[in-house]
Specification:
By secondary structure, the chain is an alpha+beta fold. The chain has helices spanning 8-21, 28-39, 44-54, 58-67, 87-91, 94-105, 150-158; strands spanning 79-84, 118-123, 135-137, 140-142.
């Protein structure tokens, strides 16, 4: 995947964010949130800049970025597909739904497609157990799925 989000303009924005927060108590989290917003992810190149400018060990920053689920090391696709693997969804066939989505999009769980169109995540529970199994695409929720539903759903986003 191209790293076209690592632009001089984005690094200039990051510099301004660091400058605005560096003298605050506990500046790392607000800076990481802003970096995620600016770049769409917090890859190693961004972590290194934050480390150098805040004088915080890179290992500490990496630990924070990989610990909190709201941070990501690589940008998400245009369409974020989430498939619930909570108990209700799993027993009603969520794994076969994942397998079909992988087959149709070519993207594996936890990854983003090479064209940047799709990201696929296996989620634990989205709180829609009565609709199990459930799949989300960005803010769209699809429930009570059967395998035959998946090609039609994916077609809406592949055009």
């Amino acid at each position: 995947m191209a790293k076209d989000f690592l632009t001089e303009e984005n690094f200039a924005k990051l510099d301004r964010v660091i400058e605005a927060h560096k003298d605050m108590q506990g500046p790392l989290m607000p800076i990481l949130h802003e970096a995620q917003h600016i770049f769409g992810a917090i890859p190693m190149e961004v972590q290194k800049v934050i480390s150098e400018k805040l004088h915080v060990p890179l290992a500490e920053i990496y630990g924070v970025v990989t610990f909190y689920s709201q941070f990501t090391l690589e940008p998400k696709g245009e369409y974020l597909i989430g498939i619930c693997l909570g108990t209700a969804c799993y027993v009603r066939g969520a794994q076969s739904i994942i397998d079909k989505v992988v087959e149709l999009t070519g993207v594996t769980v936890g990854k983003t497609s090479a064209d940047g169109k799709f990201s696929l995540e296996a989620t634990r529970c989205i709180g829609a157990c009565g609709l199990a199994p459930v799949l989300t695409v960005n803010e769209d929720v699809y429930g009570r799925l059967v395998l035959e539903d998946i090609p039609g759903i994916m077609a809406k986003y592949q055009g």
